[in-house]
Request: fold
Amino acid sequence: MKFRKADPLMRDLRRVLPSDRVRVAPLERSIMGRDASIFEGGRAGPVCFPISTEEVQGCVDAARRHGRAVVPRGAGTGLAGGAVPLEEPVVVVATKMNRLLSVDADQRVAWVQPGMINLDLSRALAPYGLHFAPDPSSQQVCSLGGNVGTNAGGPHCLALGVTSAHVLAAEVVLMSGESVVLGDADGWTPGLDLRGAYVGSEGMLGITTAIAVRLTRNPPAVETLLLAFDSVDAAAQTVSAVIADGIVPAAIEMMDKNIIWAVENFVGAGFPTDAAAVVIVEVDGLPGGVAAEADRVAELAVEREGSVRRATDDEERALIWKGRKSAFGAIAQIKPNYYLHDTVVPRTRLAEVMNQVYEIVDEHDLQVMNVFHAGDGNLHPLLLYDAREPGIMERVHAAGSAIIEASLAVGGVLSGEHGIGIEKRDFMPLMFGEADLDAQARLRRAFDPEEMANPGKVLPTGASCAEVNALGKVPEGVWG
Amino acid sequence: MSSREASADLESFAAEVGSDGPVAVVGGRTHWEIGGQCPNETRLVRAPSGVRDFDPADMTIRVGAGTPVEELDAALAEAGQRANLPVAPGATVGGVLAVGRDDVHALGRGRLRDALLEAVYVADDGRLVTAGGPTVKNVSGFDLCRLLAGSLGTLGLLGEVILRTWPRPAAQQWLAGPCDPVNLRRSMYWPSSILWDGEMTWVHLEGHESDVKSEAELARSLGCEPTGGPPPLPAYRVPTGALEAGQPTGSYLVQIGTGMAYVSEPRPIPDADPAVVTLHKRLKSEFDPRGRLNPGRDPLAAR
Reply:
């Protein structure tokens, strides 16, 4: 549908925002119709760029008056289609609310606006010797509001937990138009943990307008080890052995042969291209514990015939991490497209499920690369393809489904950090029963009885009326 | 329940809760009065007890909610691990989670609410519901586990839980002295607890032996001396903001960096935002429209 200036919804939105911040140009709506996932077919309505809580409330009020859904959006880097608008909702974009509002270094809390970029926050905190712990691979471009929406993770969430553990409070505009603070920036307030229920709700309970984040002190000592192995099994077993030994490093990341090659060609991080897998282990904290843990990790790797390289300075450490974080960019050398999966398995089943992933990919005649958060069992198989190849998407989706099923079969879960969005909405009944999904729908209704915020995500069709046996249908065209 | 089959214990717990009449789950009665009293006619049930599943290499443990916390702690200690729950004599795992009071070490170890990975609870209609998932990392669907921790059993009755576990540190040390708690926190890297009663400060250190030793030296340079343990916590928990408002009566102990303080005399705390109260009411009416689960209890009134 075309939006004209005389359109009553547009008229109301332009009473709230100046006309240059309510946009309906086809290009703008087309850009806002997608996120960083493979999903196509999203359709944005008017795209709003508020700069204050009051303006967000005004957008919600206008949408409500015209019976329109609202989709909150951060930087649009989500991988599960959570920010993909369905059926022309009002899209409320946080990118112009990107300021650091306050820092209290003694209390270790900062108030930020939702459009602030994750890495910009940690950069701004550097003079205080503090940082924000969750560091998604997209941290140079993803927004903190989006991190709250997906309960985002990252390599350094192994010891310190994902976003939820680092959000003290969120100021939220509910679909009634009210603004409310969930949680407390001091750390505790009596009552239900509404803050915890809100984080990770994928824009379906309200719109974040400010966030009180918990700040983490920069560690006085850090050791980064690059372990290389002749087999994926030995690498995975070393990961399990480290955890079983009672060490919880700051990060344990694993990369397999194909991705090592691609990264080396791309950024030259000094990864051994003849290895079947490398594992990056980082331990941090006070010097005594760091040295002891780094020594023990090296021993455990050598026992499994791994080779060990320790970063000797910050420059070498940065290069190793550059290799890890450039992985996604490096893939373009091999295939033009990739589909990044995100499941979690118990840490003790890592080697077994990795082998199944290779078998599944072979069966479907595809290529895969693995670069993932091994320490918490969070798999990220990247299925590579060329979208121009006829029939390829069927194979990609079939392999993806098989990987999800293999993960669930060993007691794993659907998503570790990307969220459910549209991507895994219809897989939810594989993990949850009718009563389980009904409970999630109840939470949604308590916040948003009319289901006006980001409809069509996370909960399969019919979850609210206990008709989840038949898988719901994703809108046509969405599975690109 | 879908891929995860309920144990016979859980099925019989659900049957006992049933789908009619006021019912409350009883744990160790260590915090029975928190958030209000159940009316006398309330039927009392007990959740299943015992360790169900524990692979130390996964660092997760599945236990019946009726398991005494001391039993959980002993099972984990054998493998050199612990869970981030206060180990109060007599208290049960489900009780501790439902009450939601953090351990005294929350500053360094993290919050109680983050220990809960998966919960199987009995809903108001008697059905078993699984919230969360068994792995240490999981964002599949809405995060009901956070909502259940501290809900006083008003949204569902916990039957079985999976908790995240952590390695037990090699060394630990309490110190105390008349030093400034803010300065202490600023100076030390990762104390697991700092408590302050207005005059004295207690600090707990844990980790590698040499690190605990060097941090203890730092604490001594700031005026603290080794001591046997923390002082007893006064009875009532209040947000730290409530200490600043109103006339102080009785003693208090602030758990630095957590927003929590403990006071010996109940004191008024500021009313919750009406929009927050409305959300509480709506959640209760969605999860328990007939008000049969732990009647008389109100998480907003929990102290």
Observations:
- The first helix of chain A runs from residue 8 to 16.
- Chain A touches chain B through 93 residues (CB under 8 Å).
